[in-house]
Amino acid sequence: MTATRPIVDNDRSKFDFKDEIVYLTETKRGLSRETVEEISAIKGEPEWMRRFRLRAYEHFLQRPMPMWTEGLDAIDFDRIVYYRKPSEREEKSWDDVPEKIKQTFERLGIPEAERKFLAGVGAQYDSEVVYHSVREELSKIGVVFMGTDQALIEYPEIFQRYFGTVVPPEDNKFAALNSAVWSGGSFVYVPKGVEVPLPLQAYFRINAENTGQFERTLIIVDENAKVHYIEGCTAPIYATDSLHAAVVEVIALPGSKVRYTTIQNWSNDVYNLVTKRAHAHENATVEWIDANTGSRKTVKYPSIYLRGEGATADIISVAVAGRDQHQDTGAKAIHLASNTRSRIVSKSVSKDGGRATYRGTLKVAPGATGAVASVRCDALMLDDISRSDTYPYIDIQEDDTTMTHEATVGKISADQIFYLMSRGLTENEAQNLIVQGFLEVFTKELPMEYAIEFNRLVKLEMEGSLG
After folding, report:
1. CA 37, CA 27: separation in Å to the nearest integer?
2. From its phi and psi, is residue 295 left (phi > 0), alpha (psi between -120 and 50) or beta?
3. Which residue in 191, 250, 195 sits closest to 222, CA to CA?
4. b/e map 198-214, b = 16+ CB within 10 Å
5. How does pLDDT run along the chain (467 residues), one tens digit per residue?
6. Domain ranges of the chain
């Protein structure tokens, strides 16, 4: 009989540890034109990418800091190190990864997960991808899964064709920052008609203090192809702040299906500011399955632009905000073609004075007839000092549209707590069970191992919240 992993493990040390790494290269603190050019030179990039970075840097300087959400003015860009290189190259064999970095990912469960149930694994440590591997049978049929920097070298034509087309540098201030100093991330290409039977996973780890991590992920799924991509993120706790400003671009070509699952568990000193966007072409389906725990401040709204007739968008976003945390999350669905469908489901839990914000956009453009859209926002507050805000933006410019919107805000019922305690549960156990049920719309979409892990993270967040 094989031993099974306990469903609940309250030891936070799995995530909160730091490595003493001697970096091969790192830029000096602060952001300047010289820093941007240095990063490009270290990587040996083509001239067009150097110009792209500098164009983004100039826009970052000119773009004012967003004021529609609180707290971003506290970021000190001069204290951040924008590039740290932990290893010489991206390895395809786990045995070749530097020992200390390997130990980190072993403690986090990689590559154990790869051996069990993944089609491919990537691992990024601070600024660089240190490992990428995809099953040989998938490589033979043309599936590409590698670090974004490596893809720029090995697949320059397809890379340049799609890079920056979904999220241009001018989109927002932090997309401009990412475009100027990006490093690492995943590149995925799935050829026509190929269905990847198991998930691809990438894991992003911030290790050093005051580090900025700016990965750039580009996923291209060709006609009638199918893929599920999963990412996880962690960082140890420091007394000073780190910055995670990623960009994700997904291109779902006609008839394809893409699912992008994220479970982020940043420490409470990380600013997590991410632009995630997909273009869904004719009869394509894109699904964002997005969870946010930890971080001091998260600003993230996975978006899907329905560009082709019959395209479908499905976005499930959940957030847990604890003490000194603000989860400013939501989703966007933009209907640009006829007979498109979208569903947005947002769930948030706030406790111990934490703040959860839903900020979403639903837009139906003129001429996008037959659009069907639904938005549901549910917020659960566990005490009297926490806060929940909802800012839905709905712009319907086509009469032939079916649209529903539903929102609820509430607390856990004392009767429910009493009933569960009468069945032998403690007060914390009862609350945790109710919260997990509230978030089930997300959890049931995960592979079993990930559902167990997410429930464990929620349990950790709930510990002690009743005093």
Report:
1. 11
2. left
3. 191
4. ebbbbbbbbbbbbbbbb
5. 333 333 333 344 444 434 444 456 778 889 999 999 999 999 999 999 999 999 999 999 999 999 999 999 999 999 998 987 754 444 455 555 556 555 555 554 554 554 454 455 555 555 555 455 666 777 788 989 888 999 999 999 999 999 999 999 999 999 999 999 999 888 999 999 999 988 888 776 666 556 778 999 999 999 999 999 988 765 444 435 688 899 999 999 999 999 999 888 777 888 999 999 999 999 999 999 998 887 899 999 999 999 999 999 999 999 999 999 999 999 999 999 999 999 999 999 999 999 999 999 999 999 999 999 999 999 999 888 999 999 999 999 999 999 999 999 988 888 888 989 998 988 888 888 888 888 888 888 877 667 777 777 777 766 644 43
6. 12-300, 413-467
User: Which residue bears the tokens 């899907």?
Assistant: 304
Q: Which residues contact 336 (CB under 8 A, 6 or more apart)?
A: 305, 306, 307, 365, 368
Q: How many CA atoms lie within 13 A of 377 on its CB side?
A: 20
- 346 and 291 Cβ atoms separated by less than 8 Å: no
